[in-house]
Amino acid sequence: MAGSTAEPGVLATARYGKDKVRVFRVVRDPESKVHNVVEYNVTVLLEGAIETSYTQANNAVVVATDSMKNITNYLAKVSPYVLDPARFALHLGSHLLARYAHVSATFVTVEQLRWARINDSSSSASGPEAGHRHAFWRDGAEKRFVEVEVARKGDGGGAVARVAGGLRDLLVLKSTGSAFENFVRDEYTTLPEVNDRIFSTSVDLRYTYGQVNVELPSDEKLLVFGVGNLNGGVHPWEDAKVGVRSREITLDVFAQDESASVQATLYKMAQRVLAENAGVETVRYVLPNKHYIPVDMKYIGVDNTTPQRAEVFTPVDAPSGLISATISRR
């Protein structure tokens, strides 16, 4: 990419698109009368032969970001994969790549808000079938997300996809089973060692898959997608199952681990995600340490600071510890 030779700078990279496209979709089963709903925040970015829109004010290469929003809503209506954020993102990215020949890569992020079915007290069914057919509640602030890049192959035949998935804002807490001892002590150390403490964090998990081939839509309306992507062990196509397992693993390890530190617990979580999901190549956790400080009541002769007797705490938002790591498959 380049501009005028008289200019001191050169356009090195360029990418643009539409952010925060809000999508809510109701899918109605005409036979059972059961409804399913999803709510997404979608980001769509394009990359390709668009440099002249920057360097020469040439809008002829610009797909309007409003058009990207409209295409997102249209596919939310017609795509058979709208209830699965990874498949929907792959469909959207592939459709855009097939539609615009001068675009070389698409980047789609889908963030899913958590809706759960309200239990139906009038139903005699049990398990998932007990849920109300069309009534839902917002199940916390946790969000699931997928990030999809679909890029044309260098030889001009088809495309490849890179997919990442994960969750964020999963707030967890346990009131024991966590310690922090034997850390570096020097003249700057004021933190006491503790063998029993509250452990709370807001989980941010991101895992990535290996690169996979993608067949772009080739029908008249560029909507037929997925048939050729169901074969060959395309693990991102099954991201919904990986997402469920990864969430369960995160919660199970957090609850069961006798934590020597946030770092140690994080490492165990990531190892299990890799062990139980063959298609995942890397796992990254970011775990901010949510602090709960025992209230000192010695001034009235009450022990509330000894770990086993601490029962009243002050939640502290800032500053907070921030622990992160990426674990890659060998």
TrEMBL record:
Gene Ontology CC terms: peroxisome
Reactions the enzyme catalyzes: urate + O2 + H2O = 5-hydroxyisourate + H2O2
Gene3D superfamilies from the UniProt entry: Urate Oxidase
Oxidoreductase as UniProt keyword: yes
PROSITE patterns tied to this protein: URICASE
EC number: 1.7.3.3
Protein name, as recorded: Uricase
Organism encoding this protein: Lactarius akahatsu
